[in-house]
């Protein structure tokens, strides 16, 4: 790895560390973690019928993740740029010896790590399955990886929306709405509802959906194309995010 690449990664890591520290500087991070864990437990053991299923797996746990992320991930991402723009600190941030790309990626990585921490803290649910039966650990690991990848895609959407707004509430609502579309478009009933449209258009719309890809991962099906999709979507959104931040800096 050459020196310029090392320098780029080091600067990005500095931004990520600063951003991650800011999460835990206020009670908001802890409130988020507690709410996430309580909702995850409630949805798994109550609405998910964890015990009624009598199966040693975490399907009832992972199946609610897209809906959890739909409301909780925008709460993480809405402050990434909207707060900087509202307080006027984005101008100060841009005077630092950092490129727009380093700042965008650093902020995203911090948010993604925070989401990963929240996800990792659900390990007692995994332990419950281990205690009650002999689960397929490969499927559980695949589910966690798939959940984290999907959460990253949600965060990339939220980061871009936040960069386009000075209002955190607006950023929250728009992010939730856009993520809902991505969750919705590959649902069978939605595909049936637009089946009157040209097949090529229906297939195109369906190809952007999150649920089918995540459903395969949570069942332990190794899907390289799913990981590639989420990774490519994140990269594209962060690139556009960088263009938006550059425009804001120039204006």
Descriptive labels:
251 residues
Helix-strand blueprint:
Blueprint: H1 3-23, H2 28-47, H3 50-53, H4 59-62, H5 65-77, H6 79-87, H7 89-94, H8 100-120, H9 123-132, H10 137-163, H11 168-184, H12 188-193, H13 199-206, H14 211-218, H15 224-250
Q: What report would you give on this structure?
A:
This protein is mainly alpha-helical. Helices cover 80% and strands 0% of the residues. It contains 15 helices and no strands. The radius of gyration is 19 Å and the shape is globular. The model has no long low-confidence stretch (mean pLDDT 84).
Stretches where pLDDT is under 50 for at least 5 consecutive residues are none
Radius of gyration: 19 Å
Biggest pleated sheet: none
What would the average pLDDT be, to the nearest integer? 84
* Strand percentage: under 5%
> How does the overall form come out from the CA principal axes?
globular
Tell me the number of strands: 0
> What's the N-to-C terminus distance?
35 Å
Number of helices: 15
What's the order of the H and E elements? HHHHHHHHHHHHHHH
Helix percentage range: over 70%
Kindly name the structural category.
mainly alpha
In short:
The chain has 251 residues and is mainly alpha-helical.
